[in-house]
Amino acid sequence: MDNKALADFFDAELFFFDLDVKSKPELFRRLVELLHEKGKIGNKNVILQTILAREELGSTGLGQGVAVPHSRSLMTKNLILVGCRTKEPLDYAAPDDIGVRLVFLILAPPQDPANQYLPVLGKLVEFVSHEEIRNKLLEIGTFEEFKNLLLGE
Amino acid sequence: MPIVPALETVIILQDLDLMIAEVNDAQSSKTIADMGFNIDNLDKLESARKELLEKLDDSILRLYNRLSRRYSHRVVPVQNNICLGCFMTQPTRFTDTGNTQLRTCQSCNRILYKI
Quick check: pTM over 0.95? Predict the structure, then answer.
């Protein structure tokens, strides 16, 4: 998968800058609420429980202020990618204990014939592994700027 | 869309079971761990699973366990009256109640979730 293919999964409607949340559970609740308001998911509680269960398995914080929560659920029809930057760093139980501001949530249906889930997850992790990219993600203010960054334009 | 609590619980249970299966699959777990994710606390998922099982009536639990022996996906979407597990058409009267009742496919017996 290349960056162009990854960019196609993002949606301007599902990119949130400077979200005002104070904790990891509040972050997940807000993102699930927003997804529900925009008609992207079925039942909110199922999605929330599934995301929280994944966190029980182990923190999805990657370190360096980035987290990529991810899970499969029957409540999603298609792969959904949400981008989010929080207003303040969150205590996320990341391996380096650095507060998280950059969050990319991936949700996918259990039956994924195109097998997109793990390639998208892998490509996203690679994208945010670059310090220069992370610094720019903390500065940008529009979805267009994000897409340009992802596409290297 | 309203959803009957038992259906909500079996969907969460299936989501958990698929997560556990992914961790137990050597190739998937290696892929995820290589990306830098921590997937060490399988015991916590198992505990969460046990709590969910306690919420289910015996008859639904038996059905879920029976389906688990045959299918990796025990709860499947039904769309336009078609079960997306076996692709057989379901009677309209069967699906027009949405998710307010727990229904199973007339053909494969999987639990249905209307999308």
Answer: no
Question: Which domains are present in chain B?
Answer: 5-114 (1.10.287.1490)
Measure A58 CA to nearest chain B CA, in Å. 5
Residues recorded for chain A: 153
pLDDT interval class at B97 (50, 70, 90)? confident
Residue B55 tokens, joined = 């919420």
Interface probe with B: pick from A45, A57, A104, most Cβ of B within 10 Å: A57
Q: Is the backbone of residue A58 left (phi > 0), alpha (psi -120 to 50) or beta?
A: left
Would you call A95 and B38 a contact, using CB atoms and an 8 Å cutoff?
yes
d(CA A50, CA A98): 25
User: Chains A and B: how many Cβ contacts under 8 Å?
Assistant: 86
pLDDT given at position A144: 96
CATH number at residue A85: 3.40.930.10
Q: How far apart are CA B31 and CA A119, in angstroms?
A: 10
A46 to chain B, closest Cα gap in Å: 6
Report, as an integer, the average pLDDT of A13-26: 96
pLDDT digits over B66-92, tens only?
999 999 999 999 999 999 999 999 988
Q: In what order do the strands lie in the sheet with B103-104?
A: B82-83, B75-79, B111-114, B103-104
Say yes or no for a CB contact (<8 Å) between A74 and B75: yes
On chain B, the residues whose CB falls within 8 A of the CB of A59 are 38
